[in-house]
Here is the input.
Amino acid sequence: MSNEAGIRSQQRTGQQSGASDYHIETRAVHGYNHIDLVHTYGSISTPIFQTATFQHIGVKHSTGYDYTRVSNPTRDELESLVSSLEGAGTTLACATGMAAVDVILSLFDPGSHIIATDDLYGGSVRLFDTAERTRGLSFTYTDTSDLSQVEPLIRPETRALYIETPSNPTMKVTDLRAMKALCEQHHLLLIVDNTFLSPYYQRPIALGADLVIHSGTKYLEGHNDTLAGFVCTAPDREDLAEKLLLIYKTVGCNLAPFDSFMLIRGIKTLTVRMDRIQDNAMKIAAFLKTQPKVLDVLYVGLPEHPGYQVSLSQTTGFGGMISFHVDTKETAYHLLENVKLIKFAESLGGVETLITHPRLQTHADLPAETAQKLGITDNFLRLSVGIENADDLIEDLRQALA
Ligand SMILES: Cc1ncc(COP(=O)(O)O)c(C=O)c1O
Here is the structure.
């Protein structure tokens, strides 16, 4: 590995997912090649190559980097790190999670049909609606946690299953191995949005996914201060990686060098944050169950959750997202306006605990009938549990529910 430029150019497809012999906690801190990689001047943290372009050292003699829209050493290091965590062949770091979803859509020709989880992040549904109008794609939404609902929807022109598990915001769990079997039978791509659990708790490629997407804004970055997205391809899907890379580097929906640095820094603490978040979430879910104004608690880590057994079989943790219905819209609004420590804000996955009203925020654009059917009603709330002291969080909820 060259020390001259700090980081050697790596091939953009087939990135090294290396260091697989080290545990994920170690790889999250040291990256994909922590033994060999020596940054300029021995810098322990990754240098931010804040440059648009790179000098050529001779005719037909590049450092391996030419222009940051195409590749950048800081971003490359991040991409290799995420590849290592997800077990991916190639990772593309995008400006946002939505940019990552948008890049994936470029794989499909007009006329293609995609079956998606009915309870998706609202922004993904908005993008898919636009793609129906402008790109000639079509989407069918269904409860993918119920295998029997999926197969009858497959048509000759169906090209992919697009799954969020657990889903946002009603926490349905889809059996990824069963989806893979269906995809193999019908020659479909399996695409999984892994935002809610992160690669620490769920690695969809190992379960058969061809493509994984992330809102890196959430658990991976972890501090509610930077937007990012990732597309990861399975090691045996370099064909997809090449197609995606062409669009990615041509359009330039990539992550800036500084933001790439922020993601590398955030990922270093991913595993300890997730452990703490999950501990807190378990305690908060148990507390919410005792509250008379709380009608139900949707947390994947509760044994009574319908997806609990599937979760045990395909994940190593339950994460920190809890949704719940309270008795009335008034109780919901009162809680939102009276939490002190917990912040009433969109987004999730950061160190701060946030509470969201999906119907007014993340899922505001859903047609009323669909929202009602999914249970995304005016008395429905979603909590993204952070790393604060669980007792403090519980006290805050207790006083806001009073
Ligand atoms: C599950 C999921 N996927 C994708 C996105 C989009 O990510 P971003 O906001 O980084 O564009 C979000 C955002 O909330 C999300 O929750």
Summary: The chain has two domains: 83-268, 270-401.
